[in-house]
Task: inverse folding
């Protein structure tokens, strides 16, 4: 049974809604998590989840605002920088996108688009289209492509 006061549970529910392409439901869960625990150590994660949901709905400017809040809450988490880079690139703000990408690579130098794509968590077509749009933004921002590894043998 869900403890209605467990802030992190709301964050995970919001992420689950994003995975099944119900991004319009994600923000309410994130806002509830932030209401319950505004200075939570996981608040930065909830913020980029809200940003992903906005991005999935093509509300890119709002997505960028959530990503920026996430980075303010925890500047040492590389995914926030990469997600911000992808969103800014899709907004046509390539200069700022490259700065965000460089900040991400400073924290996670091995990050590549292939690694990003390998981390998919759903087969929902809307989710997959959003991830493809994110990967296009990562390319525009200058994130290294990487390469697929062939199995040994």
Result:
């Amino acid at each position: 049974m869900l403890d209605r006061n467990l802030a992190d549970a709301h964050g995970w529910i919001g992420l689950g809604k994003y995975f099944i392409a119900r991004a319009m439901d994600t923000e309410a869960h994130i806002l509830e998590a932030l209401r319950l625990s505004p200075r939570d150590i996981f608040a930065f994660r909830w913020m980029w989840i809200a940003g992903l949901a906005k991005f999935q709905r093509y509300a890119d400017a709002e997505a960028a605002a959530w990503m920026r809040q996430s980075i303010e809450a925890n500047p040492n988490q590389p995914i926030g920088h990469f997600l911000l880079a992808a969103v800014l690139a899709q907004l046509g703000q390539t200069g700022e996108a490259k700065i965000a990408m460089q900040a991400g690579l400073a924290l996670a130098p091995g990050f590549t688009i292939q690694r990003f794509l390998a981390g998919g968590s759903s087969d929902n077509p809307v989710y997959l289209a959003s991830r493809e749009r994110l990967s296009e933004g990562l390319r525009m921002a200058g994130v290294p492509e990487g390469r697929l590894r062939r199995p040994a043998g």
